Amino acid sequence: MTHYMELLATNQPWNLLIFMALPVILAETIAVSELYILFTRDLQGRVRKINKFAGVIVGCYFLGIFFYLFFKAVIPITIAGEWRTIIDVIAVGFYLLGVIPLFGISLLEFGAIGKYKGEEWKLKLHAKFVALFLIVAHIAMIFGMLSPSLLDASMQMHQM
């Protein structure tokens, strides 16, 4: 089992809720509302307010997750040499890479990015951040569900 899946399976249901459900629910809220906003161009309505709220919350929340896991898991696992093949590194690495688009959305909502840009530019960047998050999150999930022993077995076959 990858460290990613082990994290989600340990301390049920709390780790699953903290590290997967809450960030994914907020990110999916952003993704779905983003489609509505892109089609209607309603930048002031209720859906945009929900989108903005979810963007601010998930970016800040995931930044906390990033720092927590980086110092409590990534550094200790690396120092101890306990990574379970490259599959494990990819799963955890791509999960943590989610901080870039999610915190980017928060920075955009706070006005720290694109403060003097037009709404069209901000809308495009927001959509790019959402797309990037969906890509890295799905790579993390796919590799997280793989068994690291897949590579161990193929490496053992090559050594024979």
TrEMBL record:
Protein name, as recorded: Permease
Alphabetical list of Pfam families matching this protein: DUF6803
Origin organism lineage: Bacteria, Bacillati, Cyanobacteriota, Cyanophyceae, Nostocales
Signal peptide per UniProt: none
Species assigned in the record: Calothrix parietina FACHB-288
TM annotation in the entry: 16-38, 50-71, 83-108, 129-151
The keyword Transmembrane helix is annotated on this UniProt entry: yes
Keywords: Membrane, Transmembrane, Transmembrane helix
